[in-house]
Design goal:
It contains twelve helices and no strands. By secondary structure, the chain is mostly helical. The protein has a domain at 172-278. The protein is 84% helix and 0% strand.
Length: 324
């Protein structure tokens, strides 16, 4: 069974080999570039905040944006509008998940929907081409079923990727929040206002906690541009989607409304969050013995038995062979 027997008739094998070699070269170049290029997390965050500041200023002044990339995104958005894919409850939930994952630009939803439309046929075609190489012999019915399974995987892959990214980002934000509240307390006791405190804490956490620093910096920008300060707090709670962040937002809103001391409220809140983090660590430590039971049985005990019983078994086999 050769590769030419698997491929559809009329498709030369040399063309497929050249395409595969080209794709492999591109992937290798991308991997080498990512490996040797320095990671500029702070610079990337600063550029994202600058884009967000320009977007808010454009919305406030009603300034239209014009660029080559924006024209391409506009064409994609018009095509999605004609397909009736840019409205509905599912799109709103997807937009919230994108914001929770850190993709807040106005074009993020358009690109995400384009990936959702284009991923099923691409995954289906790849599954149809690669299935005969993995399983042999393969009937045409099973090949079509593999293509359908690949299309189904492509339909769920973008949403699953965004959901996992948002979940990981929430976990990092929740673990970094108590330290940020301590910095808020220091800024409040030093006499800084709320806007300046958000900006200063975001700068201090840029290298150690980039996720939380990003959210706080965006909130500081929105506090400067949005007409209602509560909208900026509500946007922070909606993007993070955490109970601890909602508690922080409620505390800040009450401080803005009633004029209660900010430092005292944040100190109490930081103590509660730190206790919650300690309780979660203790729960994970308590679950550790039960979690390690199966790996120990599967991966540790068999090599231990081989090391302990193996020499004796070899000696017994040698004695039995010698007696024969």
């Amino acid at each position: 069974m050769t590769l030419s027997d698997i491929l559809p008739p009329g498709l030369p094998v040399t063309l497929l080999v050249e395409v595969a070699a080209g794709v492999a070269n591109i992937v290798a170049l991308v991997i080498l570039y990512r490996a040797f290029s320095p990671s500029e997390i702070v610079g990337a965050r600063a550029r994202a905040h600058a884009r967000r500041r320009r977007e808010l200023r454009s919305e406030a002044l009603a300034v239209p944006r014009s660029s080559r990339r924006q024209k391409q995104v506009t064409l994609i958005r018009n095509a999605l509008d004609r397909l009736k894919l840019t409205s509905g409850e599912e799109v709103r939930r997807s937009a919230q998940q994108l914001a929770a994952a850190g993709w807040r630009s106005t074009d993020a939803m358009t690109l995400f929907l384009s990936f959702r439309v284009g991923a099923p046929p691409v995954f289906g075609l790849l599954a149809w081409l690669l299935a005969p190489l993995l399983v042999h012999p393969l009937s045409s019915l099973l090949r079509d079923l593999a293509a359908l399974a690949g299309a189904a995987l492509g339909a769920f892959a973008p949403s699953l990727f965004v959901t996992n990214a948002a979940k990981g980002r929430r976990t990092k934000i929740q673990s970094q929040l108590p330290d940020a509240l301590d910095l808020f307390v220091i800024c409040a006791e030093a006499g800084l206002g709320l806007d300046a405190s958000f900006a200063r804490v975001a700068r201090e956490l840029a290298s150690t906690s980039p996720e939380l620093s990003d959210e706080l910096a965006v909130t500081a920008i929105e506090l400067s541009f949005l007409p209602n300060r509560r909208d900026a707090f509500a946007n922070l709670a909606r993007r993070a989607d955490l109970a601890s962040v909602r508690s922080l937002v409620n505390t800040l809103s009450q401080t803005e409304k009633y004029g209660t001391p900010l430092a005292q409220s944040l100190r109490v809140l930081a103590t509660e969050f730190r206790n919650d983090r300690l309780m979660r660590a203790e729960q994970k430590a308590a679950r550790l013995p039960a979690t390690l039971t199966v790996p120990m049985i599967v991966f540790i005990l068999p090599p231990l038995f081989v090391v302990l019983i193996g020499p004796a078994a070899i000696q017994v086999m040698q004695v039995a062979q010698h007696n024969k």
